[in-house]
């Protein structure tokens, strides 16, 4: 028994029939056959158009899906960009806050330094008429009293100033604690004059004489300053010693300014950085300070 073949798909069959009908020579057909053929051709064309319309509709649907996907992707990208902008703004705000905090901290440090400087200046001004005498043995004042002891030291070292009426002692006393706690030493004597001019005359005479004694023992006269000012002045001691050995007439001016004579002129410097900048222009001075 012969098996029947499956009919071709309807769409393919319709397209084939339409092609066949289109290629058919209708001139040899009767009028009725021609009409039937034309009707079949039109039906095939209609079916083809419907098929094309469905495909176009499917393509449009696919395009819409792609557009929707693109729109969604764009929305996500916009949202991500917005989050990035927000994060950048937050970072910028944090950076601005840090800058403000740093500036505020700098201002606090500046004010603290200014406050310390004012306290230091007040302390030094209260000690303006004072001299600190260093190296006098303890108990030396037992017989004459502390003021009498100071008068003896002035008379011994500066006999020409002994009768100067401007040089009058207001008060004198030992310090409550030793100046250097790390090694045994005598307590200093604080000598206060009634006038600043009297104190300055004594200090000038002490600088000129250089070596002061009391009963053959070396003593030293120094300005009575705050601890902070002394610490600032101590920074110059190594350089001061070198300049002094070279007879460059070094002096430490208030509060802690180094001056010395070079090339016939006195030069002054408030700190080591300014001195360093000056030294770079003076090879001879560089050689003097080598190793300090």
Write up this protein.
- The protein has 292 residues and is of the alpha+beta class.
- The chain has helices at 10-22, 31-126, 145-157, 196-209, 227-234, 237-245, 272-279, 283-288, and strands at residues 130-134, 169-174, 189-193, 212-214, 217-223, 251-253, 257-262, 265-269.
- Among the domains are: 97-126; 128-224, Alpha-Beta Plaits, CATH 3.30.70; 226-292, 2-Layer Sandwich (Rec A Protein, domain 2), CATH 3.30.250.20.
- 57% of the residues lie in helices and 14% in strands.
- Strands 2-3-1-5-4 form a 5-stranded antiparallel sheet, with helices on one face.
- Strand 7 (257-262) and strand 8 (265-269) form a beta hairpin.
- Helix 1 crosses helix 2 (31-126).
- The radius of gyration is 54 Å and the shape is rod-shaped.
- The protein starts with 9 loop residues before the first helix and ends with a helix.
Would you kindly provide a brief summary of this structure?
57% of the residues lie in helices and 14% in strands.
């Amino acid at each position: 028994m012969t098996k029947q073949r499956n009919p071709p798909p309807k769409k393919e069959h319709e397209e084939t029939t339409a092609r066949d009908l289109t290629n058919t020579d209708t001139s040899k057909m009767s009028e009725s056959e021609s009409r039937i053929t034309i009707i079949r051709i039109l039906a095939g064309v209609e079916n083809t158009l419907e098929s094309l319309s469905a495909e176009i509709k499917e393509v449009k649907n696919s395009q819409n899906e792609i557009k929707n996907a693109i729109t969604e992707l764009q929305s996500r990208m916009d949202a991500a960009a917005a989050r990035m902008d927000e994060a950048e703004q937050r970072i910028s705000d944090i950076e601005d806050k840090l800058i403000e905090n740093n500036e505020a901290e700098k201002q606090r440090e500046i004010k603290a330094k200014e406050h310390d400087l004012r306290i230091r200046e007040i302390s030094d001004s209260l000690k303006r008429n004072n001299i600190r005498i260093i190296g006098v043995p303890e108990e030396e004042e037992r017989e004459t009293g502390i003021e009498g002891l100071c008068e003896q030291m002035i008379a011994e070292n500066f006999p020409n100033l002994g009768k100067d009426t401007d040089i009058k002692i207001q008060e004198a006393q030992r310090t409550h604690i030793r100046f250097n706690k790390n090694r045994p030493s005598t307590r200093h004597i604080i000598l206060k004059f009634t006038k600043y001019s009297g104190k300055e005359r004594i200090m000038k005479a002490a600088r000129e004489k250089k070596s002061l004694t009391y009963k053959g023992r070396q003593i030293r006269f120094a300005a009575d300053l705050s601890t902070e000012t002394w610490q600032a002045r101590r920074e110059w001691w190594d350089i001061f010693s070198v300049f002094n050995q070279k007879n460059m007439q070094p002096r430490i001016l208030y509060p802690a300014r180094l001056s010395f004579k070079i090339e016939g002129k006195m030069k002054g410097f408030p700190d080591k950085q300014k001195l360093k900048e000056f030294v770079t222009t003076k090879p001879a001075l560089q050689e003097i300070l080598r190793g300090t």
